[in-house]
Specification:
The chain is 53% helix and 22% strand. By secondary structure, it is of the alpha+beta class. A four-stranded antiparallel sheet has the order 4-5-3-6, covered by helices on one side.
Amino acid sequence: MTIRLFAAMLGGGMIGFEREWGNHHAGLRTHMLVALGAALIMLLSMYGFSQFAEEPNVRMDPARLGAQVISGIGFLGAGTIIRNGLSVSGLTTAASLWVSAAIGLSAGAGFYFVTALATVLMMITLLALNGLGKRVIPSRTTKTLHIVVEDAPGMLKQISHALDTPNVKLGYLNVESMDDGMLGIRISYRTKKQNLFLITETIKLIPGVKSVGNYKEASL
């Protein structure tokens, strides 16, 4: 049992170290505790009620408590997911917590080879595939577009039409009245980095647009 608990902490700790190194919300201690708790629950489910195994009308199910870990770890993962406009962060950390719980269950059940293999595969996913994905998949940037325009009919329609392209995903829209008959418009959108200049220049060509500015929110 001691070996199983330490194996769970080692597997969860390796994943948590990578998350801590990347300055993510849930780090080394969180992942170690998740894996340790999952292993402990699995051991409890397998051996904690052995005194009742010989009782009449008692049916033992060692997987019952472990199944609750898989579904119950979701509340902890949800706490690491943060949404800001079009940007969503923490999904990978939430998934790593879920896998750490599975590694803990595996170690608690005594499947050392599976535990080690899952830990190695998880580290490959977090380290090697992360760099590969950034090189192969073009990154998309979430920006907030600040536009000052004349308060004239049809201005919003023209601006929305300029952003209505397959490569642009629109987020929130905020319109404020300004002095001298002007409107301040803020639009969040997500697109590939190479499209940023083209979008700005297209909006500048609309009659009535006085100024356009891009402000970066996050990179996905």
